[in-house]
# Entry
Amino acid sequence: MAEKVMVGMSGGVDSSVAAALLLEQGYDVAGITLKLKPQSGCRAGQPDEAEDARRVADKLGIAHYLVDLTKPFSQYVIDYFVEEYLHGRTPNPCVACNRAIKFGAMLEKAQELGYHKIATGHYASIEKEEGRYLLKRAPAGKDQSYVLYHLTQHQLAHTVLPLCRYEKEEIRRLAEGYRLPVARKPDSQEICFIPDDDYARFIQDYAGKTTPPGDFVDEKGNVLGRHKGILHYTVGQRKGLGMAFGKPMYVRTIDPGKNQVVLVEGGKEYFAGLIADKVNFIPFDWPKEEMEVQVMVRYQSRLTPARLIPLADGKVQALFDTPIRAVTPGQAAVFYHGDLVLGGGRIVESLPLKE
# Structure
């Protein structure tokens, strides 16, 4: 009997081709589209997206389910996003969505419907070695392992990633070959529930909250001007500060306690390391000692050699071999050994360079 796999279908090209490939490989395939926000919000669950997914499912001759996950999406993704910004951090909502929704609630729903595994259109690789499931970078040009560092052994054991060895251009050609109705559909770039990319306005409209104006200060605490509220800024930002300083200035840190945004001149926006919490490791439960790794501090940033130091309070410290700019609290730090994803966590502190 063919193994049953439910494919998360967003209505995009990647997930549509993932379904077609699995069907071709002999799996018993169904599609599932997640309704994540009613009507005016998230693109990934809107009627047009769901309709695109249904059209692809009809073309492939597979069952298609539409599941309403608006409540958990609001709780675990949007509310998290809002609270992080209000506390001066810059979250990655895709990581939160993958953790709680796509590989959490969606997997549970698929298994309720009798499907042993789920599949997505992510570009990464899952392998099993010596009884343990491992996550690896995609060997092709596009790699999305960064947003999957949180996967548990249970989730990895029940996930299929059929796109791991393909280039994006190949996926487009396959979509054309399968005659999928979304073959020429452009990729979505923005955060799905903020289509206009205006985070501050969304937070004000959604939560009825904002952050009060405060001071721009330099490293010594000297006041340089006034900012319009910390949720309008992120570490490393240069443009859009709202005033001229006579020279390029960068956001180095955000201090929600003092309601200050610390600005520095170019070249001083670099950091020596970071501390991360909420850490998940994949090949092992927890490192027994310090280890040499490569770290990625934002999606598609370059890998930087670092020394990973486990701390006593469930956090880890990473000290970079060479300084990294704009190490941003709230973003994910993901640790690698070659192509192997060791794990990652949320950046809670950026460690300054020594004077």
